[in-house]
Amino acid sequence: MTDTIKHIAIIGAGIAGLSCATVLKQADLRVSIFDKSKGPAGRMSTRRGESWECDHGAQYFTARDADFRAEVLRWESAGVAGIWRPRIKVFDGKSLKDSESALERFVGIPRMTSPARFISDDLNLTCQTTIQEIQKSPDGWLLRSAERSWLVDHFDAVILALPAPQATTLLETQSTDFAAVAKCANMRGAWAMMLRYAAPLDLPFDAVFVNDEPLRWLARNSSKPGRGGDETWLLHANAEWSEAHLEDEADSVANVLLAAFARLGGPAPQAWSVHRWRYADTEPALEVGFLWNDITGIGLCGDWLNGGKVQGAWVSGRELGQRVVQTLAR
Ligand SMILES: Cc1cc2nc3c(=O)[nH]c(=O)nc-3n(C[C@H](O)[C@H](O)[C@H](O)COP(=O)(O)OP(=O)(O)OC[C@H]3O[C@@H](n4cnc5c(N)ncnc54)[C@H](O)[C@@H]3O)c2cc1C
């Protein structure tokens, strides 16, 4: 008997890929998600050590879109997200002032990866699978992974829920103008530094928006709800400095960022680690929402197509999912 249920492949288990998969699954389509990492969440990530952990990608998210807000409420009810109320300051290089921003800031609980893990529990996700090539055959889309070569399944549609440069690589062998759109997106890097201390720091803030190179943000990770383990702080370098120093050695980056933290009263940590994000944000982020070709059955979603950030990525994936359902229902 021929299997008539459409089978969709999603490459990328960040929040965009997961929200897309959820819509497709709710429409009773068969969905297989592949991610190169050990787990889902993408840039909503948390580094974990023996007695510590630290969100080193997205720091918090806002929820102004009505559908995203409803989803965040679902996460809150499940105990995997909640509001973070840090004491926030703004530093202009000379003085520290209270932030006037009254935004409602949400975080994953107990860590930033928690919402993605919660969503993916209901989905068919295969991790540690790096897709290196996609190919359209008469029977559907084929995927080649670094770990297992060509996968046996043929897919009716393929969704690239990836940062633009990683989508560009997979689109290179395709005759589609989506490659040109992805190639034009200017995604920028960011250095992140995680600091560990034996005891809580006595500083007059939990987070600072820094308008003074090299930093743009710092936060006391331990002030977020539900965090355990050692006292942990996070520093983010700004895009301009990060781009200029993307290939620098970890030690040299750490020295500069620690000196910047010291100017705000931050003491030397007991231990530290750094992480280089090659694709942190997009300047300017596009506002097209998503891309979809209903003849070839290929789609793209992600933050870079929808204003950036967690909320934009989730909405992008959801809207692409809805479009795919409409197309396949015809
Ligand atoms: C340093 C930093 C700070 C940030 N701060 C904030 C913030 O405070 N607030 C906010 O809202 N947003 C913030 N963001 C942005 C936010 O994290 C992203 O907008 C959002 O998480 C993007 O989701 P996505 O699903 O579009 O992409 P991603 O989360 O990048 O997901 C893409 C997934 O694709 C996988 N992948 C890539 N290539 C392949 C391949 N070839 N095969 C298989 N899998 C592959 C990756 O492993 C990843 O899991 C920040 C990001 C960074 C890096």
Architecture blueprint of SSEs:
Elements: E1 7-11, H1 15-26, E2 30-34, E3 46-48, E4 53-55, H2 66-77, E5 81-84, E6 88-91, E7 96-98, E8 105-108, H3 114-120, E9 125-126, E10 131-137, E11 140-145, E12 149-150, E13 157-160, H4 164-171, H5 178-184, E14 187-197, E15 207-212, E16 215-220, E17 231-237, H6 239-244, H7 250-263, E18 271-282, E19 291-293, E20 298-300, H8 309-329
Parallel strand pairs: 1-2, 1-13, 2-9, 6-15, 13-20
Antiparallel strand pairs: 3-4, 5-8, 6-7, 10-11, 11-12, 14-17, 14-18, 15-16, 16-17, 19-20
The protein binds flavin-adenine dinucleotide (FAD).
Flavin-adenine dinucleotide (FAD) binds next to helix 1, strand 14, strand 18 and helix 8.
Features:
single chain, 330 residues, alpha/beta, Polyamine Oxidase, Chain A, domain 2, seven-stranded mixed sheet, six-stranded mixed sheet, 26% helix, 30% strand, binds flavin-adenine dinucleotide
Textual characterization of the structure:
With 330 residues, this protein is α/β, with parallel strands linked by helices. β19 (291-293) and β20 (298-300) form a beta hairpin. It is globular, with a radius of gyration of 21 Å. The longest helix has 21 residues, at 309-329. It has helices at residues 15-26, 66-77, 114-120, 164-171, 178-184, 239-244, 250-263, 309-329, and strands at residues 7-11, 30-34, 46-48, 53-55, 81-84, 88-91, 96-98, 105-108, 125-126, 131-137, 140-145, 149-150, 157-160, 187-197, 207-212, 215-220, 231-237, 271-282, 291-293, 298-300. The two termini are 22 Å apart. The strands form 5 sheets. It has a 7-stranded mixed beta sheet. The chain is 26% helix and 30% strand. It has one domain (7-329): Alpha-Beta Complex (Polyamine Oxidase, Chain A, domain 2). Residues 11-17, 34-37, 42-44, 57-61, 130-131, 161-163, 166, 190, 192, 236, 277, 280, 302-303, 308-310, 313 line the site of flavin-adenine dinucleotide.
